[in-house]
Design brief:
alpha+beta; 10-stranded antiparallel sheet; 4-stranded parallel sheet; 8 helices; 29% helix; 33% strand; globular
Length: 320
């Protein structure tokens, strides 16, 4: 089996020793080419090369942003005129190395890199390739979620802190989120959310579009904005029309408790829609899979089924 190992040495929780161990473990079983990312977009270039050169699998050791880049490189843009058959592409495997690792954990991959490597070898040896859906917007694929408004502001602030040398821990994310909601200086512009067969939702202050759940993790605790959204159905929508502290503390407590049906007067939620549009008169902050993208006034989200094959157990099975 020919495998490309893409490792991000700048990911939050990767180490030189850990990267070497992973490379040596995989090389003992497969024909492995090890590639370390050196710049933004490099993982996408490697994904495109793995597809073009016919690798059997591409394994990513890094955070969600690195996996997102690899997937976009593998598949090309969503509007490409010649969509590829996912069965002809390398299977995607993930060994967590970031702070949240939402995508890997949604696939049932253990957050411990050593355990995850053992899971991955078993899956690759068995030829386990699970087809999953992906979301898309701005002519890019996203793995698990994209958001406009307050959560993207938090992501932007976290990226500023990482550039200043601070690690992206769960506690730091939580503190940054609270600081944003409690700050009178943080007022995201309002926008409109449109979904099929419903009147537009006006005055939305922050909204998420999910391709699967959970939305993120607080340490080991999953935070599920759309508990019924998964890789086999449509998109989940979570749109809030208020940034007032009290109603969002109450809503946040539901998410932390893991309730099956998060609800609030200022919340619109749907777990299975074909498409979603966010639009507004002023540009608002946007994030995708935990990476800050900039400010936009109009975004349409779609979902394409069975577009990517991953080395993961199918629903109802385990990856151990």
């Amino acid at each position: 089996m020919r495998v490309m190992l893409v490792s991000n040495p700048f990911a939050t929780f990767t180490t030189p020793a850990g990267r070497d161990t992973l490379a040596n473990t995989l090389s003992a079983r497969y024909d492995v080419d090890v590639e370390h990312t050196t710049h933004r977009g490099h993982a996408g270039e490697l994904g495109a090369r793995a597809a073009a050169e016919g690798y059997d699998a591409i394994v990513v050791h890094g955070g969600d942003g690195t996996v997102n880049e690899v997937v976009n490189g593998l598949l090309g843009t969503p509007d490409r005129p010649d969509p590829v058959d996912p069965a002809t592409l390398p299977a995607l495997g993930v060994v967590p190395g970031g702070s949240a690792n939402v995508f890997a954990r949604a696939l049932g991959i253990d957050r411990d890199p050593i355990v995850a490597t053992a899971q991955l070898i078993k899956l690759l040896d068995a030829g386990s390739r699970r087809p999953i859906s992906l979301g898309h917007t701005l002519n890019r694929w996203f793995l698990f979620n994209s958001g406009m408004g307050m959560d993207a502001i938090v992501v932007r602030r976290m990226e500023d802190k990482r550039r200043a040398g601070k690690k992206a821990t769960a506690q730091r994310y939580f503190g940054t989120t609270l600081a944003a909601f409690f700050s009178s200086k943080v007022v995201p512009p309002a926008f409109t959310v449109t979904v099929p067969d419903r009147e537009p939702i006006e005055g939305v202050r922050f909204g998420f579009v999910s391709n699967t759940g959970p939305w993120t993790y607080f340490g080991t605790r999953p935070i599920a904005t759309n508990p019924s959204t998964d890789f086999d159905h449509g998109l989940g929508v979570f749109a809030a029309t208020s940034i007032s502290v009290l109603p969002n503390i109450m809503l946040g407590s539901q998410l932390l408790r893991g309730v099956d049906n998060p609800h609030a007067k200022h919340l619109y939620r749907d777990d299975d829609v074909e498409w979603v549009r966010f639009s507004g008169p002023e540009p608002a902050d946007v994030q995708m899979d935990g990476d800050y993208l900039g400010r936009f006034t109009d975004m349409t989200f779609g979902c394409r089924p069975n577009v990517l094959h991953v080395a993961a157990a199918r629903p109802g099975a385990t990856a151990d």
